[in-house]
Amino acid sequence: MKRILFFLALVILVIPASLAQPYAKEIADFKKQDSLSFPESGQILFVGSSSFTLWKDVQQYFPQHPIINRGFGGSTLPDVTRYEADIIFPYKPKQIVIYCGENDIANDSTVTGAVVFERFKKLYDDIRLNLGKVPIVYVSMKPSPSRWHLREKQTDGNERIRKFLRKKKRRAVFVDVWPGMLGADGKPREELYIADKLHMNAQGYIIWQKLLEPLLLK
To answer: What is the CATH topology of the domain spanning 22-215?
Structure first.
């Protein structure tokens, strides 16, 4: 028994502490990509959760804009903040597009729209501290069919972030994706989503493309 305990203790010691953090592998993969070919500064950075992760052909939607995609699936705003020194600050982007907050609410029933706002504000403040007045675009939490029961928290969080960013004028923009993603019945258009009714298909991303294109810097 002592030998088994010693072996287990040894294994724990040799595992890098970073690997114990959520999404450590995803971040390590990003850093490996960077080590092979580090992105030029002055590009547009997309960062956030799986709606960006799965937008693998995002560059094709915006051919006139050089884009770095650092979305990692399932992430929350605290996750993005945890890794901001790895996947935001080093790139010195000319603009940052954020999609995150939806998982915060879905993963924890105690998280309210107010909590999402405070988490977003922490990320926003960190970006301002480290990257100055870099323009920020926040894409609203989308109306997913599988998470329609969370819509009140989502709309509350969206509205709080919208009001906050409205005061920032040209340096920050809130993008409301709801009007184009709801049907005449006021419910999510299911044809915009893949089978899980959470993640979007190409039709959904086309709506986002049309909303974001006029806002991206050249």
So the answer is: Rossmann fold (3.40.50)
